[in-house]
């Protein structure tokens, strides 16, 4: 589904943050992306979301080498990927319902066609009672779930999440993890960036470990 070949990334004239990074994300796979703070997890997610270009190496996404894509094709490809940002990025003047429906509205879809789907997703993430309130009155965990729902409403083939359990208590973190696992079982590939060991211990998934600019892939069998 995604393949990185000897990818390197530096910001401006700075040092290489990522060096010779090579790995595959198979279809229907579930993996944690882990490593110390500053190792480059967010940078790698931005490369996967195609909002950052590698300074060297090749990235194949859905069987296309991304440097060959036009702006339009890049935007089309990005539509197949959902992302949950570390800082949520909800719009404070829109209700929870409107925030989650926004990607569909932007695509020009008719509300009559998507309304029931948005409401169902809101219930699925446990925000059924909060759909008419504005983000500033949501708790951290509720904002987190709203950000996840907004990423899911477009039914992405690949879901990326940056520290999605960073602001929630352990019980909610487990619940969110179950939600990602359920999503993966329904066919979406999932990448969760986290440095929360206790979260990773809850589910025996692949781990992409980032350290010193390199990625090593650990399959569950190799560390259990
Ligand atoms: N826009 C930028 N311009 C310059 N340097 C950057 C930029 N974004 C990140 N960096 C640097 O790249 C390195 C990797 O940062 P990144 O945010 O990807 O790490 P991370 O593993 O996600 O960290 P954390 O776990 O603390 O969120 C850091 O040294 C950071 O200072």
UniProtKB/TrEMBL annotation:
Gene3D superfamilies documented for this protein: P-loop containing nucleotide triphosphate hydrolases
Pfam families in the record: ABC_tran
Ranges where the ABC transporter domain occurs: 2-224
Annotated GO biological process: cell division
Signal peptide limits: none
Keyword Ligase set for record: no
InterPro entries: AAA+_ATPase, ABC_transporter-like_ATP-bd, ABC_transporter-like_CS, ABC_transpr_LolD-like, Cell_div_FtsE, P-loop_NTPase
Similarity-based family: Belongs to the ABC transporter superfamily.
UniProt-recorded name of the protein: Cell division ATP-binding protein FtsE
Origin species: Labrys okinawensis
Gene: ftsE
């Amino acid at each position: 589904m995604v393949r990185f070949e000897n990818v390197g990334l530096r910001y401006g004239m700075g040092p290489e943050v990522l060096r010779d990074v090579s790995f595959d994300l198979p279809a229907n796979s579930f993996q944690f992306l882990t490593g110390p703070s500053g190792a480059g997890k967010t940078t790698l997610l931005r490369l996967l979301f195609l909002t950052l270009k590698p300074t060297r190496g090749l990235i194949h996404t859905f069987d296309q080498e991304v440097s060959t894509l036009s702006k339009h094709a890049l935007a089309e490809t990005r539509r197949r990927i959902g992302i949950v940002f570390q800082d949520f990025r909800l719009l404070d003047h829109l209700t929870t319902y409107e925030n989650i429906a926004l990607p569909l509205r932007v695509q020009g879809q008719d509300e009559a066609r998507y309304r029931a789907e948005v409401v169902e997703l809101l219930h699925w993430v446990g925000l059924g009672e909060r759909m008419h309130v504005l983000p500033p009155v949501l708790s951290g965990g509720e904002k987190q779930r709203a950000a996840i729902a907004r990423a899911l409403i477009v039914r992405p083939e690949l879901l990326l999440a940056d520290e999605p359990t960073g602001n929630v208590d352990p019980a909610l973190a487990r619940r969110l993890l179950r939600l990602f696992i359920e999503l993966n079982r329904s066919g979406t590939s999932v990448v969760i960036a986290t440095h929360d060991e206790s979260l990773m211990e809850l589910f025996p998934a692949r781990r992409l470990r980032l350290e010193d600019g390199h990625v090593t892939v650990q399959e569950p069998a190799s560390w259990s």
